[in-house]
Amino acid sequence: MTPITTAGVLAQRVDEPSPSGIAASLAQLIAEGTLAPGDRLPTVRDLARALGVSPATVSTAWGALAGAGTIVARGRAGTFVRGAPAPDVAPRTRRLDGHTPATRLDLSRGTPDPALLPGLARAFERSAPHASTASYHDQPLLPRLERLLRRGWPAPSHRLTAVSGALDGIDRVLGRVARFGDRVVVERPTFPPLYDLLDVLGLVAVPVEIDDEGILPDSLAEALSSAPSALLLQPRAQNPTGASMTPGRAADLARVIAGSPRGRGAVVIEDDHSGAIAQSPAVSLAEHLPEQTVLIRSFSKSHGPDLRIAALGGPDNLIARVEARRSLGPWWVPRLIQHVVAELLTDGESIAEVARARAAYAARQRRFAAALGRDAADGVNAWIPVENERAALVHLAAQGIRAAAGSPFFPEDVTSTADGRARIRVTVGAITGDVPAVAASIARAAAAS
Questions:
Q1: DSSP label of 43
Q2: In degrees rounded to 5, what are phi and psi of residue 88?
Q3: What's the pLDDT tens digit per position in 174-212?
């Protein structure tokens, strides 16, 4: 640790002990090289004590610096001066979705099979007459689309809006409910971009263990002791495991949250990313905790990633704040796209296409699971134990097959888990050929050491 990173010495270089003054002084020290990339900063409480200000004042300053990409929080490891920004995307996202040479069969993406997406031509043609909206001030969610979404929404009291995909919704909700340095409960393992998002926002991931029915209640109870601002969960077809929350588990989790003094202040954010193609029924904590739960339902995997739309619903005051902040940026999801989604949700042929896709994914999962002697997962992915992550990936690459490394799905970037096995994620939904033959290749790769 360099001397300047001790709280007392750093406090001497702060010209004005206000949030903007602290942020400006620290930014100047970084710009002049006194603080170098990788230097660890003192804790919020230590610096606040040295400056004689409240921890909230330092947290506000660090939130501004984190938002500008100057510093980054790394959980219990501390807060550090950020190095040169990575190109294009965050590090875990880049590892998950990096550009690699073409392979015979890419099972690493976690994306839907394009051949199983409903045709968009009819929906766009039928929506064209409505594509004349010229006002900036119309409602952000089309009334027709809202009526369709409410038919299956678990909380009648929720206010609904539209956002540009699930991650956009998560980002916008976290921006309204969490401050720099706050704790956020996440599933372990979970979708790697969520870790990157928490890093960018300066939030600390608190992992909880999961099984085939979702988050384990005892693990959640322990995590709530950290007084988190939010809880991120995937209610069905969990990425990467394919687990789906049961009604009984949802009731148990709701009891844990409601019974915890620190849990009652956390906002539950549910990412239902695979709803229309998942086999499991819709289950939501919003049925038990409507005023504490935000539900996001994306149409990317079921109707097309390029539509970039998801429904977002939650307590009126919170969603109103999300809409108010969004009005200073993109403001609304294009209403033409909303008309298209409304057509897809009501057109008989489109509904049948999505139903066929759901059946096709389930059939692929069953054949894949049977070939490996395991239970079938829900959604498009399977979470496969292997003897050695790198050996398995190399073995598959030699056969022209690409899978996703399991380590980025863990907060600590592990290469093996409690059972001593590593993991890889396989997008079973993308296997369009001989499923048992691909499964046999993966079984051989899993045994490679």
A1: P
A2: 70, -60
A3: 999 998 889 999 999 999 999 999 988 889 999 999 999
Q: CB 268: neighbour CB atoms within 10 A?
A: 23
Q: Which domains does the chain have, with CATH numbers?
A: 3-81 (1.10.10.10), 91-114+350-447 (3.90.1150.10), 119-346 (3.40.640.10)
> 5 pLDDT exceeds 70?
no
Continuous segment of H or E residues that includes residue 81: strand 79-81
Q: Which residues contact 261 (CB under 8 A, 6 or more apart)?
A: none
Q: Is the dihedral of CA 299, 303, 307, 308 positive or negative?
A: positive
Structure confidence by residue, pLDDT tens digits, 362-408: 999 999 999 999 999 999 999 999 999 989 998 999 889 999 999 99
Residue 391, both tokens: 């050996």
Q: Can you tell me the distance from the alpha carbon of 307 to that of 130, in angstroms, rounded to the nearest whole number?
A: 17
- Whole-angstrom distance between the N-terminal and C-terminal Cα of the chain? 38
**How far apart, in whole angstroms, are the C-alpha atoms of residue 250 and residue 212?**
13
Which pLDDT belongs to residue 1?
41
Geometric angle at alpha carbon 408, from 404 and 412, rounded to 5°: 155
**Distance from C-alpha of 20 to C-alpha of 64, rounded to nearest angstrom:** 8
Structure tokens at 416: 């093996």
Instruction: Give exposure, 147-162, as e/b (b: 16+ Cβ within 10 Å).
Output: ebbeeebbbeebbbbb
Cis peptide before 114 (omega within 30 of 0): no
Give me the numbers of helices (H) and strands (E) for the chain, helices first please.
17, 16
CA 131 to chain centroid: 31
Could you report the per-residue pLDDT of 294-330, keeping only the tens digit for each?
Answer: 999 999 999 999 999 999 999 999 999 999 999 999 9
